[in-house]
Structures are given as structure tokens and as C-alpha cells.
Q: What sequence folds into this?
């Protein structure tokens, strides 16, 4: 009986197997992507920094992209880094500590929201020039906390957490692991049955994104710090961008199930920002089927402001 029990094969959930495979897989490298570094932040772990342009030396416009919960720099590598590099700008994206290929994953539950802010601040200091900050979701809250604290030329927020924090945001953004996010969405379905692609689409993407891409992107999501998420419920004061003359743009996805349109309106009103709606799109605007529409909105807005 014991031998039979030991020989019985264990079956891991499909999502766990996909996550392990994704972390082993090499990163896709767009044509215009030309450097990858791990930069040691003072007192912190080595951070993954990817981008295109002249590394740490700039005479052109510099854009720094900041991902949200569960994500990494890879989310910007797929479309946005090559797109904005082709427009003549130097582009960077970092993975926050414990995310992507940055160090610190084994300690991720010890990281605070303030640590994430420090990561972005350190990369900006290393760039050594005023930047255009682009933040998605929780990353949007991180960059809002840096207004007036770092040299910033403009602010762009994609499906961003509002300046008051995520206390009033749905449960989807405050769960510690993408598996829990998936289970939370499953409980909201009346029939309790759906494919993995359908569940992830409901969480992050529009119906226009092919199921294969939905599952592939979802498989690359990683764990998140419970402490950082708890901190982000009430993150501290945010300075309105308009109060210090920083132009700002807020993008909201028409199909976003995490950051509601009303939150995007409040965020835009707070910062005196331009508000634009991306259709069709879910929460992960930079990866969804309408990513190019979103990129074009941002590029045109930057050009209108001479950036």
C-alpha cells in the first residue's frame, strides 16, 4: 500500500507549471532592445534594468517605465520599449526588487512599498537626467509618490491606482499571488466553469487578445509582497502634478475590471491631467490588443508638449 502511494504521480496545477516554465524561458528581445543590466540599488538587491539608447548617457528625451503588481520589465519589452525607441527617445524599464529578473524574489514578502519607491528613485538617479515617468497600475501609484521628489519632465499613468491608494480598489489588486487573483475571479462566476484563458482575460485583458497570448502573459506573472500591498492601501501624501507644473496624462481602459473609470477620472482631476480612454482594452493596456492605440496616444501627447 505504501509503495503504491509513493509511486502515484503528483499533478501540479496547470498555472503552477506555466509559471515555472515562464521563469526558465529566455526573454524575447525586440530588435531595438540593446542593453540589459542588473544595477545594484544602494542598500538593496540588484535590479533588472532593460532599455534602448545610450546607457546612462542622454541628450534626448528619456522615458522610464514602471510596472505594477505581479509584473516585471518584460511587460514593457513586448511592445512599448521598441515603439518609443523608434520615435527617437531613450527608454528604460526596471523590474522592482523581487520581480522579473531582479534579485530579491526569495525575500519578496519582506519588501515594503517604500522599497519599490526607492528602486525607481535609484534608477532615476543613475540615469542622471529628468525623465518622463510612465507607471502602470501599482506602478502608477509608485511614480505618483515621486512627484516633486525626483527630476520629472512629465507623468503618464496607465490604468493607475489612484493617488489616495488602493484601499478602495477591488480585491483583485490586493491579493499576494496571481493564482489567488485567478481564484478570486473564478468565485465571481455564477457557473464556476471557465477556461484559464477566459479567467485571465476577465482579469486583465480584452476579448480581442488571442487566448494563446492571454495564457502566455499570465504565465509570466509572479508573486507580490503582501506588506507592499498593505502599505499601498494608504501610501502617504501625493503632490498634484499640476501644482509644480508637470504635465500629466491618464489612460483608462474601457474594459478594466480593477481600476474603474471613476477612479481614473479622480486621478486625472487631482493632477490636472488629460484623460483618454483606450478601446478595446483590459487592465494590462501595454500588452492588450490595443497597445498600439495607447502608445500612439502617449506619443502624440508627448509631441504636443514638446517632449
A:
Amino acid at each position: 500500500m505504501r509503495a503504491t502511494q509513493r509511486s502515484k504521480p503528483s499533478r501540479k496545477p496547470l498555472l503552477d507549471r506555466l509559471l515555472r516554465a515562464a521563469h526558465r524561458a529566455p526573454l524575447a528581445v525586440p530588435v531595438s532592445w540593446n542593453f540589459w543590466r542588473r544595477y545594484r540599488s544602494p542598500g538593496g538587491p540588484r535590479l533588472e534594468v532593460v532599455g534602448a539608447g545610450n546607457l546612462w548617457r542622454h541628450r534626448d528625451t528619456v522615458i522610464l517605465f514602471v510596472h505594477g503588481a505581479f509584473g516585471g520589465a518584460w511587460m514593457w519589452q513586448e511592445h512599448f520599449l521598441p515603439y518609443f525607441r523608434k520615435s527617437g527617445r531613450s527608454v528604460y524599464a526596471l523590474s522592482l526588487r523581487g520581480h522579473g529578473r531582479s534579485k530579491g524574489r526569495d525575500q519578496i514578502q519582506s519588501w515594503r512599498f517604500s522599497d519599490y519607491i526607492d528602486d525607481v528613485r535609484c534608477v532615476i538617479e543613475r540615469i542622471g537626467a529628468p525623465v518622463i515617468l510612465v507607471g502602470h497600475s501599482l506602478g502608477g501609484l509608485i511614480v505618483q509618490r515621486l512627484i516633486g521628489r525626483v527630476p520629472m519632465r512629465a507623468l503618464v499613468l496607465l490604468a493607475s491606482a489612484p493617488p489616495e491608494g488602493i484601499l478602495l480598489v477591488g480585491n483583485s489588486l490586493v491579493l499576494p499571488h496571481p493564482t489567488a487573483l485567478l481564484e478570486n475571479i473564478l468565485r465571481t462566476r455564477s457557473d464556476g466553469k471557465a477556461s484559464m484563458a477566459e479567467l485571465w482575460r476577465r482579469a486583465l485583458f480584452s476579448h480581442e487578445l488571442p487566448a494563446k497570448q492571454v495564457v502566455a502573459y499570465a504565465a509570466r506573472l509572479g508573486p507580490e509582497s503582501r506588506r507592499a500591498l498593505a502599505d499601498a492601501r494608504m501610501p502617504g501624501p501625493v503632490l498634484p502634478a499640476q501644482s509644480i507644473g508637470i504635465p500629466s496624462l491618464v489612460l483608462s481602459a474601457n474594459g478594466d475590471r480593477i481600476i474603474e473609470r471613476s477612479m481614473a477620472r479622480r486621478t486625472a482631476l487631482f493632477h490636472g491631467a488629460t484623460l483618454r480612454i483606450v478601446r478595446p482594452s483590459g487592465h494590462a493596456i501595454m500588452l492588450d490588443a490595443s497597445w498600439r492605440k495607447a502608445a500612439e496616444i502617449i506619443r502624440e501627447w508627448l509631441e504636443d508638449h514638446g517632449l
Remarks:
- The beta strands are 35-40, 46-52, 62-66, 90-95, 131-136, 152-158, 248-253, 274-278.
- The chain has twelve helices and eight strands.
- The first helix runs from residue 2 to 7.
- Confidence is low (pLDDT under 50) at residues 1-35, 171-179, 182-193.
